[in-house]
Each structure stands twice: as structure tokens, then as C-alpha cells.
Amino acid sequence: MHFMTNTVETSRHGSVTLVTLCRPDVRNAVDAPTALALYQAFTAFEADLDARVAVFHGVHGHFCAGWDLQAATRVLAQSPDAAQVLASTLDFDPADLPVPGPMGPSRLLLSKPVIAAVSGAAVAGGMELALWCDMRVMEADAYFGIYCRRFGVPLIDGGTVRLPRLIGMGRAMDLILTGRKVEATEALQMGLCNRVVASGGARAAALELAAQLAAFPQATMRADRASAHAQWDLPLAQALHQEWERGKTCLDDALQGAARFAAGAGRHGKA
């Protein structure tokens, strides 16, 4: 599978899909056509039966600088009712069918994991895209920040939902209200990223991590992932029940895995 527009490129590395954001002149900020291209790239990944894990990164040293405010200014100049037009264009579907978010894939809940390879700036809507991913591999000189706080731009790609769930309400309020810069060491300490690697190494490290995930039995991993996502809205008893309902479909995989272990595979923490 190969997907490419002027601003988004998708390539395959075995069973891993690499989605690349390509707008280096604006630090990979996302305009409307790019948002649609990202949405299409990740829906294509979801539909690709041979693709198991995706890695999401940006070219030329930056993950994503958020919503392209310069493009937004051009929209505003075209119409005095630009805000209402924009709101109606990006509104949720009345029937809850999937539609692109302002940054593209932010309203999707895929059945397969996505890993963000974060270099340089992952700020404002770019931070929201990183939060949308399952895991974040961050370079030592990369940084997060809700920089849109400075310009009155709201978090509308899941930031107010995913950030508190990821790092807790107190820390999330600090970042949401102040819009301050969060560098890699602090991001790792608060659980905002999962790995910190040397500058320039996020893409390779994320691809290596993705290959590890792709090598696991997929039905079980996806069932566990889906259960973790679904439990947020459920009372404990119901959450435990839905975990069981998903997991029991994988018992054959579990028994086969147990047999491999008994035969000597995976001893002493080896994958």
C-alpha cells in the first residue's frame, strides 16, 4: 500500500505503516486539505488487512505545529461568517458516522495501534494528534505545549479529553490553562510520552517498537487495546464484563501461547 498527496505520504515497512506529514515550510502545521489527507491515510491503514501497526511522524525535524493559523487567516479574509462556516463544515455527523476532525484523524478510534514519533514541536493541534496515538516516542530535544492558548484557539481535537485521561486532571489543567512548554524529560516523568530517544532517533525507534507490536498475536493485543479504550465510560463491573467478552474470543491464542511457553519459548523475559 502506498498513499501520497502533496502533504501526506504513507509507505509500508513489512506489516508496519509509516504515515508522514510533509509541510516543512510551516513546521508541518495542518490545513484543511492536509487534515483530510491524514484522515484518509489512517482510514486506509485501518482497512489494510496486512497492516498491523502505524507510525506517525513529521518531516524535517518537527512532528506538527498544530492548526495552520496562516491558512485560517486566509479563510477569515474570504468571509465575515468564516467561523460559522468552519463550525458547520467540521461538525459531528448527526448519525455519529465518522467524519474528519479539524486536524484530521482525531475523531477516529481505530482497531490497531498507532505510535507517534515526536521530534521538534508537537504543539497545539499537533500535541492533540500525538495524544490521539497509543504511544509516543519522543526525541530528547522535542517538546509539547498547548501554544494555541496564546491565540484563543480552543482544543477541539480531543485535547481536553485525552490529556486528563493520560496524565491526570491536575497536571492536565496545568498544561491546558498555561499553555506552557513541556520538554522531553518532564513529559516522560508525567507519562505524556513513553520513550525518550536521542535527537533524530524517534522515527527509527518508533518503527522498531511498531515491529515488536506487529510480531505479537494480533487478536489478543487488539482485544486488550479495545477493552482499555472502552472501559472509560463504564462502571467497574460492566468494564470487567466487557473485558471478558473481548478476551474470551482469544482463548485459543492464549492456549497456543501457553504451549509455546511450556516448550521453552519466551523464557526470562525474551520476546
Give a brief description.
By secondary structure, this protein is of the alpha/beta class. The protein has helices at 32-47, 69-78, 82-90, 125-132, 159-167, 169-178, 184-190, 202-215, 218-230, 236-247, 251-262, and strands at residues 3-4, 8-13, 16-21, 53-58, 114-118, 121-123, 135-139, 143-145, 181-183, 195-197.
Describe the structure.
There is one protein chain. With 271 residues, the protein is of the alpha/beta class. It contains eleven helices and ten strands. It has a seven-stranded mixed sheet, with helices on both faces. The chain has a three-stranded mixed sheet with strand order 6-8-9. Helix 4 (125-132) crosses helix 5, helix 5 (159-167) crosses helix 6 (169-178) and helix 9 packs antiparallel against helix 10 (236-247).
Can you lay out the helices and strands and say which pair or pack?
Layout: E1 3-4, E2 8-13, E3 16-21, H1 32-47, E4 53-58, H2 69-78, H3 82-90, E5 114-118, E6 121-123, H4 125-132, E7 135-139, E8 143-145, H5 159-167, H6 169-178, E9 181-183, H7 184-190, E10 195-197, H8 202-215, H9 218-230, H10 236-247, H11 251-262
